[in-house]
Amino acid sequence: MNFMQALRTRWNDADTLVCVGLDPDPARFPAAMGDDPDAVFAFCRAIVDATADLACAFKPQIAHFAALRAEDALERLIAHIHETHPGVPVILDAKRGDIGSTAQRYVVEAFERYDADAVTLNPYLGRDSIQPFLDRADKGVILLCRTSNPGGADFQNLGCGGRPLYQRVAETIARDWNAHGNCALVTGATFPEELGQVRRIVGDLPLLVPGIGAQGGDVEAVLREGADAHGAGLMISSSRAILYASSGEDFAAAARTATQALRDQINTCRTQA
Ligand SMILES: O=c1ccn([C@@H]2O[C@H](COP(=O)(O)O)[C@@H](O)[C@H]2O)c(=O)[nH]1
After folding, report:
1. PROSITE patterns from the entry (predicted)?
2. Which domain holds residue 176?
Protein backbone atom coordinates (compact mmCIF):
# COMPACT_ATOMS: atom_id res chain seq x y z
CA MET A 1 0.00 0.00 0.00
CA ASN A 2 1.41 3.41 -0.90
CA PHE A 3 1.38 6.44 1.43
CA MET A 4 -1.84 7.99 0.10
CA GLN A 5 -3.69 4.67 0.27
CA ALA A 6 -2.47 4.08 3.83
CA LEU A 7 -3.50 7.59 4.87
CA ARG A 8 -6.99 7.25 3.39
CA THR A 9 -7.38 3.86 5.03
CA ARG A 10 -6.55 5.39 8.42
CA TRP A 11 -8.98 8.28 7.85
CA ASN A 12 -11.78 5.88 6.97
CA ASP A 13 -11.16 2.76 9.05
CA ALA A 14 -9.74 4.35 12.21
CA ASP A 15 -11.94 7.46 11.87
CA THR A 16 -9.12 9.80 12.84
CA LEU A 17 -7.47 12.89 11.34
CA VAL A 18 -4.92 13.19 14.19
CA CYS A 19 -1.24 13.10 13.30
CA VAL A 20 0.88 12.48 16.41
CA GLY A 21 4.07 14.54 16.30
CA LEU A 22 7.23 13.05 17.81
CA ASP A 23 9.51 15.88 19.02
CA PRO A 24 11.50 14.35 21.90
CA ASP A 25 12.92 16.80 24.46
CA PRO A 26 14.73 15.00 27.33
CA ALA A 27 14.35 18.06 29.56
CA ARG A 28 10.61 17.32 29.58
CA PHE A 29 10.81 13.55 30.05
CA PRO A 30 9.59 12.10 33.36
CA ALA A 31 12.30 12.20 36.01
CA ALA A 32 12.20 8.42 36.26
CA MET A 33 13.63 8.15 32.71
CA GLY A 34 16.70 10.20 33.62
CA ASP A 35 18.93 7.14 34.06
CA ASP A 36 17.90 5.38 30.85
CA PRO A 37 20.71 5.66 28.26
CA ASP A 38 18.13 4.90 25.57
CA ALA A 39 15.55 7.37 26.91
CA VAL A 40 14.73 9.01 23.57
CA PHE A 41 13.71 5.69 22.03
CA ALA A 42 11.95 4.46 25.18
CA PHE A 43 9.95 7.68 25.54
CA CYS A 44 8.87 7.82 21.89
CA ARG A 45 8.06 4.10 21.76
CA ALA A 46 5.80 4.48 24.79
CA ILE A 47 3.99 7.41 23.11
CA VAL A 48 3.63 5.48 19.85
CA ASP A 49 2.27 2.37 21.54
CA ALA A 50 -0.20 4.44 23.59
CA THR A 51 -1.60 6.40 20.62
CA ALA A 52 -1.25 4.27 17.46
CA ASP A 53 -4.91 3.24 17.23
CA LEU A 54 -5.91 6.94 17.43
CA ALA A 55 -3.46 8.24 14.83
CA CYS A 56 -3.79 8.68 11.06
CA ALA A 57 0.01 9.13 10.94
CA PHE A 58 3.11 9.69 13.07
CA LYS A 59 5.37 12.66 12.36
CA PRO A 60 8.87 12.47 13.88
CA GLN A 61 10.75 15.79 13.49
CA ILE A 62 14.30 14.92 12.47
CA ALA A 63 16.04 17.84 14.22
CA HIS A 64 14.72 16.69 17.57
CA PHE A 65 16.64 13.45 17.10
CA ALA A 66 19.72 14.74 15.27
CA ALA A 67 20.36 17.44 17.88
CA LEU A 68 20.61 14.67 20.47
CA ARG A 69 22.78 12.45 18.24
CA ALA A 70 19.80 10.10 18.36
CA GLU A 71 19.39 9.29 14.66
CA ASP A 72 19.82 5.64 15.56
CA ALA A 73 16.84 5.93 17.93
CA LEU A 74 14.82 7.45 15.07
CA GLU A 75 15.69 4.54 12.76
CA ARG A 76 14.66 2.03 15.42
CA LEU A 77 11.50 3.97 16.24
CA ILE A 78 10.29 3.97 12.64
CA ALA A 79 11.11 0.25 12.35
CA HIS A 80 9.11 -0.31 15.54
CA ILE A 81 6.10 1.58 14.11
CA HIS A 82 6.16 -0.46 10.90
CA GLU A 83 6.50 -3.74 12.79
CA THR A 84 4.08 -3.13 15.64
CA HIS A 85 1.54 -0.77 14.08
CA PRO A 86 1.52 -1.67 10.37
CA GLY A 87 -0.73 0.58 8.35
CA VAL A 88 0.00 3.75 10.35
CA PRO A 89 2.18 5.80 7.97
CA VAL A 90 5.28 7.68 9.12
CA ILE A 91 5.95 11.23 7.90
CA LEU A 92 9.57 12.25 8.32
CA ASP A 93 9.43 15.99 9.05
CA ALA A 94 12.77 17.01 7.53
CA LYS A 95 11.85 20.03 5.34
CA ARG A 96 14.59 19.14 2.86
CA GLY A 97 15.22 20.99 -0.41
CA ASP A 98 18.42 21.23 -2.47
CA ILE A 99 19.83 20.87 -5.99
CA GLY A 100 19.05 17.63 -7.81
CA SER A 101 22.22 15.67 -6.96
CA THR A 102 21.81 16.40 -3.26
CA ALA A 103 18.05 15.83 -3.44
CA GLN A 104 18.83 12.29 -4.62
CA ARG A 105 20.75 11.70 -1.39
CA TYR A 106 17.89 13.13 0.65
CA VAL A 107 15.61 10.59 -1.06
CA VAL A 108 17.91 7.83 0.15
CA GLU A 109 18.00 9.36 3.62
CA ALA A 110 14.20 9.57 3.96
CA PHE A 111 13.09 6.38 2.25
CA GLU A 112 16.01 3.95 2.63
CA ARG A 113 17.84 4.97 5.78
CA TYR A 114 14.73 5.91 7.77
CA ASP A 115 12.13 3.92 5.78
CA ALA A 116 9.63 6.79 6.06
CA ASP A 117 6.38 6.69 4.10
CA ALA A 118 6.39 10.44 3.40
CA VAL A 119 8.69 13.41 3.90
CA THR A 120 8.22 17.15 4.30
CA LEU A 121 10.06 19.32 1.77
CA ASN A 122 10.73 22.99 1.08
CA PRO A 123 9.69 23.75 -2.54
CA TYR A 124 11.60 27.05 -2.66
CA LEU A 125 14.39 25.65 -4.89
CA GLY A 126 11.84 24.67 -7.51
CA ARG A 127 10.68 21.62 -9.43
CA ASP A 128 14.08 19.99 -10.09
CA SER A 129 14.85 19.97 -6.36
CA ILE A 130 11.66 17.99 -5.70
CA GLN A 131 11.57 15.76 -8.80
CA PRO A 132 13.53 12.86 -7.25
CA PHE A 133 10.85 12.71 -4.54
CA LEU A 134 7.94 13.16 -6.97
CA ASP A 135 9.25 10.16 -8.92
CA ARG A 136 8.61 7.95 -5.88
CA ALA A 137 4.91 7.36 -6.55
CA ASP A 138 4.73 5.06 -3.51
CA LYS A 139 5.84 7.80 -1.12
CA GLY A 140 4.18 10.98 0.13
CA VAL A 141 5.71 14.34 -0.86
CA ILE A 142 4.52 17.00 1.58
CA LEU A 143 5.49 20.52 0.57
CA LEU A 144 5.60 23.66 2.70
CA CYS A 145 2.93 26.10 1.52
CA ARG A 146 1.72 28.40 4.35
CA THR A 147 3.60 27.58 7.53
CA SER A 148 2.23 27.99 11.06
CA ASN A 149 4.93 30.31 12.47
CA PRO A 150 4.36 34.08 12.81
CA GLY A 151 7.14 34.89 10.31
CA GLY A 152 5.61 32.61 7.70
CA ALA A 153 3.98 35.65 6.14
CA ASP A 154 7.33 37.41 5.55
CA PHE A 155 7.76 35.76 2.15
CA GLN A 156 4.81 33.39 1.74
CA ASN A 157 2.26 36.23 1.64
CA LEU A 158 4.20 38.49 -0.73
CA GLY A 159 2.43 39.27 -3.96
CA CYS A 160 3.43 37.07 -6.89
CA GLY A 161 1.68 37.72 -10.20
CA GLY A 162 -1.32 39.24 -8.42
CA ARG A 163 -1.68 36.58 -5.72
CA PRO A 164 0.23 35.71 -2.54
CA LEU A 165 3.17 33.42 -3.14
CA TYR A 166 1.72 30.61 -0.99
CA GLN A 167 -1.32 30.47 -3.31
CA ARG A 168 1.00 30.19 -6.35
CA VAL A 169 2.81 27.35 -4.58
CA ALA A 170 -0.50 25.57 -3.90
CA GLU A 171 -1.71 26.05 -7.46
CA THR A 172 1.52 24.90 -9.13
CA ILE A 173 1.91 21.81 -6.98
CA ALA A 174 -1.74 20.69 -7.33
CA ARG A 175 -1.78 21.35 -11.09
CA ASP A 176 1.74 20.48 -12.29
CA TRP A 177 3.66 18.45 -9.69
CA ASN A 178 1.05 15.89 -8.67
CA ALA A 179 1.12 13.59 -11.71
CA HIS A 180 1.54 10.53 -9.44
CA GLY A 181 -1.08 11.72 -6.92
CA ASN A 182 1.54 11.68 -4.14
CA CYS A 183 1.64 15.37 -3.17
CA ALA A 184 0.29 17.06 -0.05
CA LEU A 185 0.81 20.55 1.40
CA VAL A 186 1.75 21.96 4.82
CA THR A 187 -0.70 24.66 5.85
CA GLY A 188 -0.69 25.89 9.45
CA ALA A 189 -3.69 25.81 11.75
CA THR A 190 -2.74 29.26 13.02
CA PHE A 191 -3.88 30.98 9.80
CA PRO A 192 -7.29 29.43 9.05
CA GLU A 193 -8.27 31.96 6.38
CA GLU A 194 -5.18 31.08 4.37
CA LEU A 195 -5.91 27.41 5.01
CA GLY A 196 -9.34 27.95 3.42
CA GLN A 197 -7.77 29.70 0.43
CA VAL A 198 -5.45 26.74 -0.08
CA ARG A 199 -8.32 24.26 0.17
CA ARG A 200 -10.29 26.15 -2.50
CA ILE A 201 -7.26 26.06 -4.83
CA VAL A 202 -6.23 22.41 -4.41
CA GLY A 203 -9.55 20.54 -4.22
CA ASP A 204 -9.12 17.26 -2.33
CA LEU A 205 -5.31 17.35 -2.03
CA PRO A 206 -4.34 16.25 1.51
CA LEU A 207 -3.12 18.95 3.89
CA LEU A 208 -0.74 18.47 6.82
CA VAL A 209 -1.85 20.99 9.43
CA PRO A 210 0.53 21.75 12.33
CA GLY A 211 -0.23 24.46 14.88
CA ILE A 212 -2.93 22.83 17.01
CA GLY A 213 -2.18 22.51 20.72
CA ALA A 214 1.00 24.31 21.82
CA GLN A 215 0.75 26.91 19.00
CA GLY A 216 -2.88 27.70 19.81
CA GLY A 217 -4.64 26.84 16.54
CA ASP A 218 -8.44 26.51 16.59
CA VAL A 219 -9.71 23.01 15.73
CA GLU A 220 -13.17 24.22 14.72
CA ALA A 221 -11.71 26.79 12.29
CA VAL A 222 -9.36 24.18 10.81
CA LEU A 223 -12.27 21.84 10.04
CA ARG A 224 -14.47 24.64 8.71
CA GLU A 225 -11.78 26.00 6.40
CA GLY A 226 -9.67 22.96 5.67
CA ALA A 227 -11.84 19.85 5.35
CA ASP A 228 -12.19 18.42 1.87
CA ALA A 229 -15.49 17.55 0.14
CA HIS A 230 -15.65 14.30 2.15
CA GLY A 231 -15.08 15.96 5.54
CA ALA A 232 -11.52 14.62 5.64
CA GLY A 233 -8.35 15.52 3.72
CA LEU A 234 -6.44 16.65 6.81
CA MET A 235 -3.54 15.39 8.92
CA ILE A 236 -4.00 17.60 11.97
CA SER A 237 -0.68 17.45 13.78
CA SER A 238 0.01 17.98 17.46
CA SER A 239 3.34 17.29 19.15
CA ARG A 240 4.05 18.94 22.52
CA ALA A 241 0.43 19.01 23.72
CA ILE A 242 0.36 15.21 23.36
CA LEU A 243 3.94 14.29 24.29
CA TYR A 244 4.06 16.37 27.45
CA ALA A 245 0.46 16.13 28.59
CA SER A 246 1.97 14.85 31.86
CA SER A 247 5.51 15.12 33.18
CA GLY A 248 4.92 12.18 35.50
CA GLU A 249 5.27 8.46 35.09
CA ASP A 250 1.75 8.41 33.61
CA PHE A 251 3.00 10.34 30.53
CA ALA A 252 1.97 7.67 28.02
CA ALA A 253 -1.54 7.33 29.44
CA ALA A 254 -1.86 11.13 29.50
CA ALA A 255 -0.69 11.29 25.88
CA ARG A 256 -3.38 8.80 24.96
CA THR A 257 -6.04 10.84 26.75
CA ALA A 258 -4.90 14.03 24.98
CA THR A 259 -4.90 12.30 21.57
CA GLN A 260 -8.34 10.83 22.16
CA ALA A 261 -9.69 14.24 23.22
CA LEU A 262 -8.28 15.85 20.07
CA ARG A 263 -9.68 13.12 17.83
CA ASP A 264 -13.10 13.44 19.46
CA GLN A 265 -13.05 17.25 19.18
CA ILE A 266 -12.15 16.98 15.49
CA ASN A 267 -14.84 14.40 14.81
CA THR A 268 -17.47 16.49 16.60
CA CYS A 269 -16.59 19.40 14.31
CA ARG A 270 -16.76 17.08 11.27
CA THR A 271 -20.29 15.98 12.09
CA GLN A 272 -21.39 19.60 12.59
CA ALA A 273 -19.85 20.80 9.32
O1 LIG B 1 4.50 25.17 9.45
C2 LIG B 1 4.97 24.31 10.19
C3 LIG B 1 5.64 23.18 9.73
C4 LIG B 1 6.07 22.25 10.61
N5 LIG B 1 5.87 22.39 11.95
C6 LIG B 1 6.35 21.29 12.84
O7 LIG B 1 5.21 20.72 13.49
C8 LIG B 1 5.49 20.47 14.84
C9 LIG B 1 4.60 21.33 15.73
O10 LIG B 1 4.82 21.03 17.09
P11 LIG B 1 3.76 21.45 18.24
O12 LIG B 1 4.41 21.02 19.50
O13 LIG B 1 2.47 20.72 17.96
O14 LIG B 1 3.58 22.93 18.15
C15 LIG B 1 6.99 20.74 15.03
O16 LIG B 1 7.68 19.52 14.80
C17 LIG B 1 7.31 21.73 13.93
O18 LIG B 1 8.65 21.61 13.49
C19 LIG B 1 5.21 23.49 12.42
O20 LIG B 1 5.00 23.65 13.64
N21 LIG B 1 4.77 24.41 11.53
Report:
1. OMPDECASE
2. 3-272
